[in-house]
Amino acid sequence: MMLLIEKYIKYLRYEKNYSLHTEISYSNDLRQFHDFIGSHFSDVEIKTIDSDIIRMWIVSLMEEKNSPRSVNRKLSTLKSFFKYLLRIGEATTNPAKKIVGPKTSKPIPVFVSDKDIEKILDEDTPDDFEHIRNKIITELFYTTGIRRAELIGLKNTDIDFYSRTILVTGKRNKQRIIPLSDNMINSLHTYLEIRDKSTSEQSEHLFVRENGQPLYPMLAHRIISEKLGQITTLSKTSPHILRHTFATSMLNNGADINAVKELLGHSSLAATEIYTHTSFEELKKIYNKAHPRA
Fold it and tell me: Which pTM does this prediction carry?
């Protein structure tokens, strides 16, 4: 079974172009399932694994206090694995296909209010390279809703100043074009001017450190955490909070949900719909404040 798992991971890497993070996640899930099979059964082959065995695994995961969300992700991994095995002729059925995982409650995403985010973006900052870079990174996260990895991967050539757009390469190398405001364009011009004067080496990457090397994930996280740390009411401070904020602001101000889906780079509308809950909460607040009988 391990040989098939390794073959599947290579398929994800070389044919599906999955990210390293996703590859590691899938590998860990399947190795965990392999270890469960080995500790509970003897001489079990791929073609003899049935839905009862998979249900036993799910029960054991729940007993080990894995969250429903985590269990559902592992089940999704297993479904994809057997789908692959069917395609290459190593399995005759997909025993995980019709299994329903535990119910999960979808938490409302944490987001920053328009008032608080404007306060952060409008604050006076020193005009040195790092302060300007960090402020513009914050502004770009908020005005485009891009992911941390997408921002780190931006190249100089991805900015089209003439059409006022940015080309973003998302998950599985899918690309999308996001419009930029005039203010964002001006901010990027300012950043590029000081970047080219301040950095020791020229780079193809848009956002770099002073040595000219591109940002790394933890640095991007730290930049946003320090900015959002000014808002004492926030329970979380990460780049993804600004992605939540972008989507929530767009929907609260009347944007079509399908348009928001495309801007976020979601593959399905279901991933975007979670933000409608936040918007509905905002509508309830407005109603309660405005209606005389509320």
Answer: 0.67
